[in-house]
UniProtKB/TrEMBL annotation:
PANTHER family: NADPH OXIDASE, NADPH OXIDASE 5. The chain crosses the membrane at residues 211-235, 288-312, 332-357, 369-388. Signal peptide: none annotated. The lineage of its organism: Eukaryota, Metazoa, Chordata, Craniata, Vertebrata. This is NADPH oxidase 5.
Length: 738
């Protein structure tokens, strides 16, 4: 079955709803074929087969659909009965669909729906949408919907009353669907091929700096290759190719380190060069140069092998092929004839590093393999100096910068050990660390750092976004999702070994933290899975990210998927602090007002924050922060609000789905009554399913609050989708990437 909120099913529904007779016949043929793969030898589907095929979480809906599909009450569904029911749901009028919905809710078949039946339906809706609410809240939802629909106060809801209630939600009946299994979804129709993104003006507008750098990169390689090859014209084609590739490798093997100078890149972000150079994509360029180095090295090696083979065949050559390739006897090279053996060693080291840098190694719990093999750049540089007579000249400047930065980072990170003073284990295996902030640790919202915890792994350093605001002076916050070997060990160590980690001065530290919490700061603490401790750790940073541009934007759209909210949590907290700083309250009449001026480095006119989570528990990570942000804007009008929140829960079924329509109506009614969302407790209503990005960006563009810049932190798959939409609307797109 399509995942809840998955647009794939909606698209196919819309397609079938507009089919002509020929397409309709093809779809019925498809359903017939799929039916036969599910049905038994008797050509019928029983309840168990139906439940298995539909893949529903709650058996209530499977049983209700089965009863309604089984029109003759035989206890099995025939192909004709299935086709008839599906045709009604797909091609039927809104009234036909409404009758079907009413029959689903009318469990006892009495012709009306009582409060207990409605509660049973809503309870199943909650389970189907992976929403967990207390019984009292379920009762409130039931009463909210029941009292709204029961106009005549007869303690039952009739068909007419349900119809009138649904008419208050425009568009729901016309688009009413039922999430079906894959075996009922027809193949996607062939569509006209869209214009490749590379050929659109919007693509080039957003990728000018990339294109410029790539053009310079390619042009420089062509120039270096041509100059080196032309100098060896007299030695034949193989030598020309080898020398040309070697000269390109001199540049690549030295400059590739510059792309990983994080402190230099962070400094460059504060200059005008940040507008010209694609600093946010330094890792992608580093990887690209890695591929180029491997490719040029192979060509360089093959060219030399061909040259050695030709020399060995010559009658005048005193050396055999293997001597030319593996020994120092021919005297090739500027340091005791070591060019050939050092070249072989370089190629082996390079191929080892390349193989161990693949994503399958890095993301399969073997990060140490990637880390230690990547440190072979040190012996590689040494071998390159011995191998090529001019490499040391190319390495002089970038190598000096590299070792200076490494020395500064090592000195700063190891100067004094820090301590993790508090740990909070959050839902979905997220570890919230509070680290005592060093006096000279200055950072900006959205920056990240490298963390080393010797008790977890002595030599491993891992990057994490700082989730606290710079204005919070006492501690640094990190929210770490357990997704790999190291992060899982971190979570489990705190979960299982509290007595080992907690320091001897736990009560003193608790008193210190209680006093610090009296200061006005945002707190995400909960009593469960909460520890005060004193664990030694080291940090290296801070380092800048694309999110540093947010405060210089006019209209910023922040999109976080899951734990991708962490850089935006820091930004939102910083906004909250700045907002509180500008807010004044009269001590006599309690009248509050805001200063008209803004910070010099803050050009923001509007912020749209979009948070997409799969499950309900994930919202607990930062719900108190979002609550404070809403409270600070409570006095503002809807049009005048500086910050607008948008929450989406992808596991919840959409409002148009038969299995969720009653629940979504009840949630809407109760939210209007209580002025808060039942799922998160925020004033902002949590929307079911995934965002319709076209509608989201159309709304953003229509507000005309200034030049729009979209900042995203989340999965690469969603990043591609968002990047395409941003190109369509000519929005600037930035992705968190370190």
């Amino acid at each position: 079955m399509s995942a809840p909120g998955d647009p794939a099913w909606t698209d196919s529904e819309g397609f079938r709803g507009t089919m002509n007779a020929e397409e309709d016949a093809k779809w019925l043929q498809w359903v017939t074929h799929q039916f036969k793969t599910i049905a038994g030898e008797d050509g019928e589907i029983n309840l168990q087969d139906f439940k298995k095929a539909l893949k529903v979480k709650e058996s209530f809906f499977a049983e209700r659909f089965f009863v309604l599909f089984d029109s003759d009450g035989s206890g099995t569904i025939t192909l004709q009965e299935l086709q008839k029911a599906l045709t009604l749901l797909i091609h039927g009028s809104p009234m036909d669909k409404l009758k079907f919905l009413f029959q689903v809710y009318d469990v006892d078949g009495s012709g009306s729906i009582d409060a207990d039946e409605l509660r049973t339906v809503l309870q199943s809706c909650l389970y189907e949408s992976a929403i967990s609410l207390p019984k009292e809240k379920l009762d409130q939802l039931t009463l909210a919907l029941f009292e709204s629909a029961d106009k005549d106060c007869s303690s039952t809801i009739t068909f007419e009353e349900l119809r009138d209630e649904l008419q208050r939600f425009p568009g729901v009946l016309e688009n009413l669907t039922i999430s079906a299994a894959h075996w009922l979804t027809p193949p996607a129709p062939q569509r006209h091929r869209r214009q490749p993104r590379l050929l659109t003006s919007a693509y080039w507008h957003n990728h000018r700096s990339h294109a410029l750098c790539l053009a310079v990169f390619v042009g420089l390689h062509v120039l270096l290759f041509a100059l080196a090859a032309s100098a060896y014209r007299a030695f034949g084609a193989s030598v020309m190719v080898a020398k040309g590739c070697g000269q390109c490798l001199n540049f690549d093997c030295s400059f590739i380190a510059v792309l990983m100078l994080r402190r230099c890149l962070t400094w460059l972000r504060a200059t005008w060069l940040a507008q010209v150079l694609p600093l946010d994509h330094n890792i992608q360029f580093h990887q690209l140069m890695g591929y180029v180095v491997v490719g040029l090295s192979l060509v360089h090696t093959v060219a030399h092998v061909v040259n050695f083979a030709l020399q060995a065949q010559s009658e005048t050559s005193p050396f055999q092929f293997w001597e030319l390739l593996l020994t120092t006897r021919p005297g090739i090279g500027w340091v005791h004839g070591s060019a050939s053996p050092t070249g072989v060693a370089l190629l082996l080291l390079l191929l080892l590093m390349f193989a161990c840098s693949s994503s399958c190694v890095r993301r399969s719990g073997h990060f140490e393999v990637f880390y230690w093999t990547h440190l072979s750049y040190l012996p590689m540089w040494l071998l390159l100096i011995l191998h090529g007579p001019n490499f040391w000249k190319w390495l002089l400047v970038p190598g000096t910068l590299f070792f200076l930065e490494k020395t500064i980072s090592l000195a700063a990170s190891r100067m004094a050990a820090l301590h993790i003073v508090e740990v909070n284990l959050l839902p979905s295996k997220v570890t919230h660390l509070l680290i005592k902030r060093p006096p000279l640790f200055h950072y900006r919202p959205g920056d990240y750092l490298y963390l080393n915890i010797p008790s977890i792994a002595r030599y491993e350093w891992h990057p994490f976004t700082i989730s606290s605001a710079p204005e919070q002076k006492d501690t640094i916050w990190l929210h770490i999702r357990s997704q790999g070997q190291w992060t899982n060990r971190l979570f489990e160590s705190f979960k299982k070994s509290e007595p080992v980690f907690c320091g001897s001065k736990r009560l003193s530290r608790r008193l210190e933290m209680k006093r610090s919490q009296r200061k006005p700061q945002v707190s995400e603490m909960s009593s469960e899975n909460h520890q005060f401790c004193n664990i030694k750790c080291y940090i290296d940073g801070p380092y800048g990210t694309p999110t540093r541009r947010i405060f210089a934007s006019e209209h910023a759209v922040l999109i976080g998927a899951g734990i991708g909210i962490t850089p935006f949590a820091s930004i939102l907290q910083s906004i909250l602090y700045r907002h509180q700083k500008r807010k004044h309250i009269c001590p006599n009449c309690q009248h509050s007002w805001m200063e008209s001026g803004q910070d010099e480095d803050m050009k923001l006119h509007k912020v749209d924050f979009i948070w997409i989570n799969r499950d309900q528990q994930s919202f607990e990570w930062f719900v108190s922060l979002l609550t404070k942000l809403e409270m600070d804007q409570a006095e503002e009008t809807q049009e005048g609000r500086f910050l607008e929140l948008h929450m989406y829960m992808t596991s919840a079924l959409s409002k148009n789905d038969i299995k969720a329509i009653g629940l979504q109506m009840a949630l809407d009614l109760l939210a209007k009554k209580e002025k808060k969302d039942s799922i998160t407790g925020l004033q902002t209503r949590t929307q079911p399913g995934r965002p319709d990005w076209n509608k989201v960006f159309q709304k953003v563009a229509a507000e005309k609050k200034g030049k729009v810049q979209v900042f995203f932190c989340g999965s690469p798959a969603l990043a591609k989708i968002l990047k395409g939409h941003c190109e369509q609307f000519s929005f600037k797109f930035f992705q968190e990437n370190f």
